[in-house]
Every structure is written in structure tokens, then in C-alpha cells.
Design a protein that fits this description.
Largest sheet: 8 strands, antiparallel
Shape: globular
Structural class: alpha+beta
Radius of gyration: 23 Å
Distance between the termini: 61 Å
CATH architecture of the largest domain: 2-Layer Sandwich
Length: 509
């Protein structure tokens, strides 16, 4: 049994920094925050026991500055570092630097991280461990002719992927040889510019797929557990938007089978701490392993609500050398949970980023409702960092109760000053195919959800019965006025702007 540490430095910001701080408080561990110039007034700075200035707003000069973070950790006497997700969370150099300095890295070892980060090596290891993988190349491809050869063997269409990409980035589609040659040339040039070398591989494009991941945990004694699955199929450009558990297509037998494969995948790379094994499920019900995400996931609250296990506290305990305190047979499902990622993006205008002052906000409350966010009235949403501003999670005794609670919570959720993805989620929660479980990674396009959202917003706004819906339609125009005001050092709220006569389409304040 390991001894708990006395202090943790959180090498992150926003809602995930707050999440780790709360776990530290429950474990009576001192929390140490970092902040850039942009985050001087952020909630995580005020909530932590200590906070240290990191640098200018640009990530390369702040939250990606390994040497500076290590320097602060040492001077502050931090025994461990929690990387959160994003930034340095999957950077093996950072993990190795912590190991070198005798600082506990709350995550996998640098060796395991290097293996999981190298998709080709990881795929090779998984195949030896008899973990099913997607047909395609086994090695990085340097020449387009070899890519064409493998594509013909696998059968078009195929995906061309970067071995160094992540989070859905660096993926290109090709349905014929000409297209593959064109995409290969461009992708190769991008890879060389970004990483100094070309690192591409080809995979068979699976039709009608669902993205399903299994939450993993493994301790230093070699005890591996899976904490069931999360359905992550509702995406935009390979970026997850909505996640829920359990998946409607995973029964008890399948859960046990794929869960065991996920644990085997973790064992094959000697994985430590929490992470996920990601799978694609085709229309025939076949599961194919795609990668291990060697960090805490954005959607980890979904698993927390259906298992009752605090994953961040579990991470800290495992990092301190403790064994996982439960057996696989101890875990049972409790109801259903859904998470919507509230991003500062305008879904009415191709998800263009939306930043600036938030004059006011109203967070939803009630039974089975959880909000993880850094928002507060008069806070600022920065353009330097990820667009995620909040995670709205609901729990219910079954999927429908969780869905209805989510729909109601979305109606209550109000964020002034910026556009968000809330209107899209309102549409999805009440869309027939989502309710019936007819989803896949092309769900938004297949059922034309963006146009459905626009139609519903227009219909509601014409009735002038929902001020929040009306505001959603006005946000795009309001943001232009707000940005103009910001440039002249003025502050402009949505309510003042509307009262000034900026009312269109018959909408009344």
C-alpha cells in the first residue's frame, strides 16, 4: 500500500484543473495551480492552495513550457504533477523529465506513453497480443506507390492517417487511386513541416461505424480493470461532441469480451494508471482496436456517474503505488449518463470559434445534473486555448431519463457574450434517430442535423416565446458588435445590445 503524497501541481487550466483541485481537496492534498497572463482571474487560480505564474498566453510559452513547469514544481516542492488532458498530457518527454527529477507523473510511464503514441509500434504489439486491428499498413509509408498497393489490398475507400496525429487530426479520405496520390503528397508535406519526417499509414475505411471506447485502469502490481464502455460516435470532423454510457449496441456478453481485450491491450504495453482503449465497431458488430489514449479523457465524468468511482482520485492513488481497490466482478452499471461538450463555437456558421467576455451565465441544476466548467459571470473565454468551456453531464435510471434531463438542462444553460454548441445539442437530444440509437460517426451529416437545428431555431424564434433561442440566433451578429466594442476598450452585454434596437426577424426582448 503506497503512501499518499502531500502536494500535486496541476499542469493545466480551465475545468480540468478545477476537477483535479477538487479531487486533491477530498484527499487532503495541497493543490498547486499554474496560470498564464490570460488566466490571471481564472477560477482554478483562486481555487488552488497555491498558484504560480507560468508565462505569456501562447501555449508554447506557458502550458507547453516543460522546463518552466518542472522548475516551478521543484521550487514549490510538488511531489507529483497531474497533466490533465491536452497540452503535455501525452508528451513522453514531459513524463520522462518528471521521472528524471523524481517527481511523480500521474499517468503512464514515459516508455508506455512512447509506445501508445507510436501508432505503428502499438498496432504491431496489439496484433501480437491478438487484439483485432483495422486492415491496412503495418508500417509507416514513405512512398505513395506502397500506399496505393496496400489500399488496393484493403479495398477502397481508405483513410490516410498521420502516425503523429491525434484527436481526429491528420486524417484524409480517399476513394480511388488518384485521390490517394493527391492526399498522400499533401499529407506527407504537412507531416515533414510539423515533425521533420513523413509518417503516414493507410487504413480501410469502415462504413457506418460507431466509435466506442473502454475506460481502463491498471496499477503498478499489474492489476488491470475496465470500467465499461462509452459511446463516442456523435462527432464533427472526428472530434467528439456527445458521449454516453452504456452504449445501446453493447450487451453484457460483448462488454465482457471487448473489455477483456481492452485490458489485454493495456497489459501488452505495460500501461500504468487511467486511460482508454479506443475501438471502431462496424455495421456487422465487429470491433477493431485503433489506439490507446494515455491520459484522463474529457468524458471521464460519464464513467464516474455510472460506476460511482472517482477516476481522478483513483489516478492519484495508483500513482502513489496503491493497488486498484476493486475487482472486475465488483463493478456494476448504475443507470445511464450523457455528456455534452459545450464548446465556444458557432454551429450556425460552420463552428467558427467564439471568444471574449461572458457578461453573465446561468448554469443548470437539479437531480442528476452535473456541470464541470470554468465559467462565471464576467469571465473571459480566451482564443489562445481549446474551445471547450463546459461539460454538461446528466444521469438517469435509464438512457431516456438521462436524455430528458439533458434536454431540460440545455434549456436552462445560458451563456452570454459568446456562441456555443448548445443549440445543436438541444436538437440532437430530441431527434428520433438519436433517441432510437441509430447513430454512427457520420450522424450529423447523415441526418442533416445542422439544417434541422437552423429550422427549429427559426421556428421557435418566430414565436418569440424563448428568449434564449432568440439570443442564439442573434449571437453571431452580436459578436461582431462586441468585438468592435472590445477593440475600443468598451464592454457590451447582449441585453444592452438588444435594448439598443438590434432586433431582427420579429424577435422581441
Amino acid at each position: 500500500m503506497g503512501k499518499l503524497i502531500s502536494s500535486v501541481l496541476i499542469a493545466n487550466r480551465g475545468e480540468i484543473a478545477l476537477r483535479v483541485i477538487r479531487a486533491c481537496k477530498e484527499l487532503e492534498i495541497k493543490s498547486i495551480a499554474l496560470y498564464s497572463d490570460e488566466d490571471l482571474r481564472s477560477k482554478h487560480v483562486k481555487s488552488a492552495d497555491e498558484a504560480y505564474y507560468l508565462g505569456p498566453p501562447a501555449p508554447t510559452k506557458s502550458y507547453l513550457n516543460i522546463d518552466k513547469i518542472i522548475e516551478i514544481a521543484e521550487s514549490a516542492g510538488a511531489e507529483a504533477i497531474h497533466p490533465g488532458y491536452g497540452f503535455l498530457s501525452e508528451n513522453e518527454t514531459f513524463a520522462a523529465k518528471c521521472e528524471e527529477k523524481g517527481i511523480i507523473f500521474i499517468g503512464p510511464t514515459s516508455d508506455a506513453m512512447a509506445l501508445t503514441g507510436d501508432k505503428m509500434k502499438c498496432k504491431e504489439i496489439m496484433k501480437k497480443a491478438e487484439v483485432p486491428t483495422i486492415p491496412g499498413s503495418d508500417d509507416i509509408l514513405e512512398e505513395v506507390d506502397k500506399a496505393v498497393e496496400i489500399a488496393e489490398e484493403a479495398g477502397y475507400p481508405v483513410l490516410l492517417k498521420s502516425a503523429f496525429g491525434g484527436g481526429g487530426r491528420g486524417i484524409r479520405f480517399a476513394d480511388n487511386e488518384k485521390k490517394l496520390r493527391e492526399e498522400f503528397e499533401m499529407a506527407s508535406a504537412e507531416s515533414i513541416a510539423a515533425f521533420g519526417k513523413s509518417g503516414l499509414y493507410v487504413e480501410k475505411f469502415l462504413q457506418g461505424i460507431r466509435h466506442i471506447e473502454f475506460q481502463l485502469a491498471r496499477d503498478s502490481s499489474g492489476n488491470g480493470r475496465h470500467l465499461f464502455e462509452r459511446e463516442c460516435s456523435i462527432q464533427r470532423r472526428h472530434q467528439k461532441l456527445i458521449e454516453f454510457s452504456p452504449s445501446s449496441v453493447v450487451d453484457k456478453k460483448t462488454r465482457s469480451k471487448i473489455g477483456e481485450i481492452a485490458v489485454r491491450a493495456a497489459e501488452s504495453v505495460d500501461y500504468l494508471n487511467a486511460g482508454t482503449a479506443e475501438f471502431l465497431r462496424d455495421e456487422k458488430g465487429n470491433f477493431y482496436f485503433i489506439e490507446v489514449n494515455s491520459r484522463l479523457q474529457v468524458e471521464h465524468p460519464v464513467t464516474e456517474l455510472v460506476t460511482g468511482i472517482d477516476l481522478v482520485k483513483l489516478q492519484i492513488r495508483i500513482a502513489c503505488g496503491e493497488d486498484i481497490p476493486f475487482k472486475q466482478s465488483d463493478l456494476t452499471f448504475n443507470g445511464s449518463a450523457i455528456e455534452c461538450r459545450i464548446n465556444a463555437e458557432d454551429p450556425l456558421h460552420d463552428f467558427v470559434p467564439s471568444v471574449g467576455l461572458v457578461p453573465d451565465c446561468n448554469l443548470p441544476y437539479g437531480p442528476g445534473v452535473r456541470v464541470d466548467t470554468y465559467l462565471y459571470p464576467r469571465c473571459n473565454v480566451s482564443g489562445y486555448y481549446d474551445s471547450l468551456v463546459a461539460k454538461l453531464i446528466t444521469w438517469g435510471q435509464d438512457f431516456n431519463e438521462a436524455r430528458v434531463r439533458m434536454s431540460n438542462a440545455l434549456d436552462e444553460f445560458m451563456i452570454e457574450g459568446i456562441s456555443t454548441t448548445i443549440p445543436l445539442y438541444r436538437t440532437i437530444m430530441n431527434e428520433k434517430n438519436f433517441i432510437e440509437g441509430n447513430i454512427s460517426t457520420d450522424y450529423l451529416e447523415k441526418y442533416d442535423l445542422l439544417n434541422l437545428m437552423r429550422t427549429q431555431l427559426k421556428e421557435k424564434s418566430l414565436k418569440a416565446s424563448d428568449a434564449s433561442v432568440a439570443a442564439a440566433l442573434l449571437y453571431s451578429e452580436f459578436l461582431k458588435a462586441q468585438n468592435t466594442a472590445a477593440n475600443s476598450s468598451k464592454e457590451l452585454s447582449l441585453s444592452n445590445w438588444v435594448r439598443s434596437g438590434n432586433i431582427k426577424n420579429g424577435i422581441q426582448n
